[in-house]
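Here is the promised in-class demo. Please do not try to memorize the tokens; focus on the logic of going from shape to residues.
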């Protein structure tokens, strides 16, 4: 199997082939969590954001033209390299919306997703998009129960459609559907065939969410040895492996990953934009900070959550309400001394704030001392230990809010210093300010 010399032959994600206008960023020093494999693309990959295609297949999704444009603009300013839109062949409205978004002149390149069919491809070209993502089912189960065509038919059809799209001067990706349940020999010969036809990317799709990170790594490595074009990965999350699979793919040579905001999509969805960004940031923060406006992530997620009538999950990557909350006393102490002890992501890089929760029975005196200092109270270590015991006692009965804790601290402080002032309650704005300290 011929392994191409990557540096010479590969178009680079984000700077590569033809009229690719996606941005590049200087490669910076990766962290020890980045793979050191020579095939790895963790510091040179692109995101194909598919909220306006895969995301439209989410049970709750119905995007008006205005909403699609709002989401497209938000993702464009976040900095994703590509936006993928629903096929113009889906409906009249989809066709018009595709045209309208392609006309916006965004920095992100606009792609649309079409079946391997001349009619679909011609319609897509009319909308003025920058590229077409062509897909066809290759697994025997799809060949039997979906389109009913054999591999020779798929090869011939692929040639006809790809040749036409290329003649129109736009990007073309060719992907199989359900790649992980397709015959490997069929798959590789098909990809070799379309690579020779000059596609920009071949795509592998875990359409049913059955793949594991090890299987993904193996397939991408094998494919890397067979084609010289870019490789795109599309991973569903039915069994919880989507982000792991996407990471494994990139670490093995995959150049483009499909995401949607909050992972919305068919069934329980695909790789979430925020989770994938978190994973890649852990490998190389500088590269990710240089490429994407991380502070805008929360706003994009809120926009999409509102549009589809869901809330951001409590345990969401980066923006979940407890993503940067530290509770255990032993963690709180270390976090206050050096946040990297228990944080792989810096909350401030994402416009988020660290919160040390202290109103509970697991609290520790170091965390309480930090709060005492935030409130400008004058207590020595022994006194802080004493008031910590009091907080633990109260928290054994019921959890204490920040206001409750502040009241206990102020009352204790006043008692110690014989102050009889009645201004012992904390206003919520004071409290909020202190929490962000
Ligand atoms: Zn999908």
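The designed amino acids, position by position:
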């Amino acid at each position: 199997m011929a392994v191409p010399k990557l540096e010479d032959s590969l178009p680079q994600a984000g700077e590569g082939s033809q009229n690719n206008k996606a941005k590049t960023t200087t490669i910076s020093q990766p962290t020890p969590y980045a793979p050191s494999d020579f095939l790895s693309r963790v510091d040179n990959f692109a995101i194909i954001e598919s909220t306006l295609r895969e995301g439209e297949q989410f049970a709750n999704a119905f995007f008006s033209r205005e909403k699609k444009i709002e989401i497209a603009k938000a993702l464009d300013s976040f900095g994703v390299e590509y936006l993928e839109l629903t096929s113009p062949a889906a409906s009249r409205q989809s066709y018009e919306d595709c045209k309208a978004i392609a006309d916006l002149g965004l920095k992100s390149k606009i792609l649309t997703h079409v079946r391997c069919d001349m009619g679909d491809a011609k319609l897509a070209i009319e909308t003025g998009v920058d590229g077409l993502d062509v897909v066809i089912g290759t697994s025997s189960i799809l060949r039997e129960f979906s389109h009913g065509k054999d591999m020779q038919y798929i090869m011939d059809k692929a040639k006809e459609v790809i040749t036409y799209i290329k003649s129109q001067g736009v990007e073309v990706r060719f992907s199989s559907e359900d790649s992980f349940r397709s015959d490997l020999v069929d798959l590789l010969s098909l990809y070799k065939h379309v690579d020779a036809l000059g596609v920009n990317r071949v795509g592998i799709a875990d359409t049913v969410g059955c793949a594991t990170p090890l299987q993904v790594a193996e397939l991408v490595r094998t494919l890397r040895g067979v084609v010289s074009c870019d490789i795109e990965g599309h991973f569903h999350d039915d069994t919880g492996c989507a982000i792991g699979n996407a990471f494994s793919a990139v670490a093995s040579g995959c150049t483009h990953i499909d995401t949607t905001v909050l992972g919305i999509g068919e069934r329980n969805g695909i790789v979430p934009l925020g989770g994938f960004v978190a994973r890649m940031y852990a490998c190389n923060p500088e590269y990710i900070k240089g490429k994407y406006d991380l502070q805008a992530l929360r706003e994009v997620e809120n926009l999409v959550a509102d549009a589809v009538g869901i809330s951001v999950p409590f345990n969401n990557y980066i923006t979940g309400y407890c993503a940067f909350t530290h509770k255990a006393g032993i963690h709180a102490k270390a976090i206050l001394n050096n946040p990297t002890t228990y944080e792989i992501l810096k909350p401030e890089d994402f416009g988020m704030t660290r919160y040390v929760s202290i109103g509970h029975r697991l609290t520790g005196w170091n965390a309480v001392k930090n709060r005492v200092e935030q409130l400008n109270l004058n207590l020595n270590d022994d006194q802080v230990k004493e008031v910590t015991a009091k907080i633990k006692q109260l928290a054994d009965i019921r959890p204490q809010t920040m206001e409750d804790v502040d009241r206990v601290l102020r009352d204790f402080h006043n008692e110690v210093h014989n102050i009889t002032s009645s201004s012992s309650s904390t206003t919520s704005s004071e409290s909020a300010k202190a929490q962000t300290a």
